Amino acid sequence: MSVFGRLLGRRLATTEEAKELVGVPDGVSVFGLDALGSAAYGPEAALTVLIPAGIFGLRFILPISLMIVGLLLLVYFSYRQTIDAYPSGGGAYVVAGENLGKNAGVVAGAALMLDYLLNVCVGISTGIGALVSAIPRLQRFTLVLCLGVLALLVVTNLRGVRESGVLWRVPTFSFVMCLLIVIAVGLAKTLSHHGAPPSLQPIPPPIAGPAVVSIWLLLRSFASGCTALTGVEAVSNGVQSFEEPKKKNAKRTLSVIVFILALLLAGLAILVHAYKITATDPGRAGYQSVLSIVTSAVMGRGIFYYVTIASILMVLSLSANTSFAGFPRVCGMIADDSYLPKAFSLRGRRLVYTGGVVVLGVLAAGVLVMFGGVTDRLIPLFAIGAFLAFTFSQAGMVQHWRRTGGPHSRLYLSINAVGAVATGVTTLLVFVAKFTSGAWITLAVLLSLILLMRGIHHHYEEVAAEIQVDTIAFEQVDEPPLLLLPVARWNRASVTALTFACALRGNVRVLHVQCDSGDEEDMEQWRRMLKQAAERSGVATPELIAVRSDYRAITGPLFQYVLRAEHENPRRSVAVLFPELVAARWYQQALHNYRAMLLKARLFFGGRRRVAIVNIPWQLSKLGDRGGEA
Amino acid sequence: MSVFGRLLGRRLATTEEAKELVGVPDGVSVFGLDALGSAAYGPEAALTVLIPAGIFGLRFILPISLMIVGLLLLVYFSYRQTIDAYPSGGGAYVVAGENLGKNAGVVAGAALMLDYLLNVCVGISTGIGALVSAIPRLQRFTLVLCLGVLALLVVTNLRGVRESGVLWRVPTFSFVMCLLIVIAVGLAKTLSHHGAPPSLQPIPPPIAGPAVVSIWLLLRSFASGCTALTGVEAVSNGVQSFEEPKKKNAKRTLSVIVFILALLLAGLAILVHAYKITATDPGRAGYQSVLSIVTSAVMGRGIFYYVTIASILMVLSLSANTSFAGFPRVCGMIADDSYLPKAFSLRGRRLVYTGGVVVLGVLAAGVLVMFGGVTDRLIPLFAIGAFLAFTFSQAGMVQHWRRTGGPHSRLYLSINAVGAVATGVTTLLVFVAKFTSGAWITLAVLLSLILLMRGIHHHYEEVAAEIQVDTIAFEQVDEPPLLLLPVARWNRASVTALTFACALRGNVRVLHVQCDSGDEEDMEQWRRMLKQAAERSGVATPELIAVRSDYRAITGPLFQYVLRAEHENPRRSVAVLFPELVAARWYQQALHNYRAMLLKARLFFGGRRRVAIVNIPWQLSKLGDRGGEA
Hints:
2 copies of one chain form a homodimer.
Chain A: H1 3-8, H2 24-37, H3 42-50, H4 54-57, H5 61-85, H6 91-100, H7 102-134, H8 142-158, H9 161-192, H10 215-225, H11 234-237, H12 246-275, H13 290-299, H14 303-318, H15 320-336, H16 354-370, H17 379-404, H18 409-433, H19 435-467, E1 482-486, H20 492-504, E2 507-514, H21 520-537, E3 543-548, H22 555-568, E4 574-582, H23 586-589, H24 594-605, E5 612-619
Parallel strand pairs in A: 1-2, 1-4, 2-3, 4-5
């Protein structure tokens, strides 16, 4: 098995597709890690905004969390209906596109893509950031660690979705269990101590805040807390990845995810309030994450604390995985509609959209390198994409029910309408609240992406119109093509290429670059050999052309000759034949055929690109009869 | 002009080569920045080792510096002789290879390559490290800044050597002038104050050291200080880049560089001793570089101080440029001898060894990312490569004089012999002194590189022997080749490819993947159309083959068909024709021909690689008659 083979797993035939589907438990890991992981930064984000309000701000955390959970439930009911109505998956992109027009679909799709990308970066870097806080010796390797996790995710996802499910099940389970235990124990203590439980560890003191806070601060806190909802749409994008009955399994998965997330958000809000925990400034010394404070307050700093922190770290960095399940699928669908390069719609050897996985990996790596693996500044940006997608999706569903009608459609419509308005208002709120801290960047990137997608679509349509034919009308076949074979010296590879050319019975011209006139004798000998060989085989003698080069350049003069030949033969096709050494091993392959590559590149980028390029392989030994993997 | 064009400058013809040569002033910048820049870290490295000895260690800095300057002069005379004896350039690699055998050459070449690579990393990151110490707000962008400088160097060097000379002349001049002024003023003050000049700024107090130091500490200090000599060999590698008279200009350039460097090293040692300056620990708060302490002690913290620091920073990061002049040349020569992929010996559009520049950039980027842009740990490693090269070069020169003889050869021989022994002992010393702090890594990397180079050479020799032929003996041309043309739908591109195939008079088979039997009717129509078209043009009717696919896979069934056809026709060549859409703009090109790419990749990696691949371009409009850049 090759290196690729070992790394990426056996190639899968399309017939094996059924085995790659996931059930509810794996579905929760594959499509839910992102949503569940946001419990680790959503409440923290809301509390961080409330820091200036000090202890006084704490009284607002319960209503704010309730609003967020309420919004979560609205989104939940809305997406349940989406899964029923659009079992082929696609979420916001499909729903908006089908109901509100292609342009709305493109906007929703772009928003989703951006959201997925930012989720990868923020997930990985938050996770690694927490890890290096725990083990400061690793600080200098922050970026390397981030890129390592990213590489792991890329490779795992190139292996196919099912393996990811199995791999991620343990951390998800451990994360959910730990947090639920913290919440249960904490609630029990709160009840038994009449709402004021003692902390097992000292809690960082809140700053002395004012006795009044502005509505604006509360709204900003709510807007930041809404990051807790990101990732909820993932299930509806991947309905087709579920085992039969697909709809039912997808809805169950969504229910499990949302139920747990709501429990976590509500439970954490109650504990934060009961234990009087305020956030600490991430930029200052003595920073501790809210989850760390809550866990140590309720359970103490024992083994359980470290298990909890470890699973939080793992889930945070692995929540990026949800994007690797969603991004390639969305890109694939968008590419099917010609709004992205068709490459995104091709499935690779393990039945995943290889292009999407690789592109997501490269883009995320770029963002991570750009920010040195520290992406706390990106957190404010990335809720916008998600909420924009929510809004478009639900607005689309409203239109869907108006169009299709049917029993209960009025009820369904009103659920989606409420959801659309709520998420729309939230989107606007998030956008306004975060405009100066970076939401404008989101807007700029979104607009560029939308323009790019429309440009791609336009190009594909133009091309389709241009190359369209009604019937197979041959152009006139006047003369045999001109076959040009550059030869530096005769060896088995060039002789094979010559044989191929002669068998085609085109007009064969052997080109040899002559650096100084001393070669004249050699040329005469070549001419004789060519004549003899051709006569023996009963084919026309190939012409031998000396291409002059005053300096030691090789590709330049050949390139010029090809251009001239093409110009002088406007009615004939011209092809250049490249003998190509095929090595036994791929790493040996890297040692050969450079001049050919150079000339090909020049013909392609510098020429008129009307010349056919023919690669004629000649195998080096040791390849033997390895054969195809038939 | 294309994006590439704007970035990399006009393509240069080989005839313009002469204009790219450098004179002495540009030579000092291009080949000397590295050597001169080491004045900024050599003395510092020696003094850092002496920190534990406190003020007592200072009395040894003068003898240590004198030894280093002495070694520098030995190396200088030795390299002067090398330039005379080997005006074609190549330095250690050529000299060792010609005189001590190919294996010695390979070791010297590998040592040089490693030294060049580490010099890029250390130069850039030391420079940026100093910059971010000056402007702490930039700290979080350390890596991005390093990669930015690296990208700048790569692009500048792809534009050709001459431009680099002009670009770097200002910082080099400013660096040398500032330091010489500091030294002159400092010496004047020292003399006028009878050896104990007052400092204009408080000097960090030395630690209270012991009254006795070990020889071992002094030797380690000397070994660290030897980093000041790195880069001296660059001139002898690039003699061919100088204007005529090449030898004379190269030697003059070397003299200027060494003279300035010796002045700087000696002057700094005297000032450090006179002002009683010890190094500060780079890991601790309050760190300040030795050059910064010296400059502020002599000149105060005025505008001159900041100009000096700025030029040090620039020279440090730009000293990496010396490697970009040297590394590609050395790689090119090694590749000419088949010890590295031939790609390294190809000149690009601006007459530089594009491959070497790009590879150096990629490797340096990898090291920088791996260390997050902070490479202080690399400093101990990178003198070893340079000194190993020095030693091999001079040992080679000894052998050279023994072989050639001639007048004064005895004198020349003894100069080189002394140099060889001195640098050989120093190499051993540096290696032993730094073994635990990382010299073993240097050794491991060197050994791997040497093994790799020998492996490459072995492969090239095997291949040459295998493909060698004595005469052009055609294999029998039995039957016309089998030309396979996969067609999904008929459009101008596929019709063009069909026309090309029919003009070749091979056996043409049109392959169409049929997913369900409903296509049967279409196939009949295609068959009729093909027949009519062929009859009109007077060629044989192409066969139409339906390739069955049970699922929606396209490339899989085509791949299988090609393998089968190849197997069933062992005596014929088989070619697959790929219609290729050629877009007007390169970025549009990225949108097309994916399925073709996929099938090509499968034929290459998964097949027996005996099938010729024919690319038949079809140009989309707007390309017009852009033409070649003839």
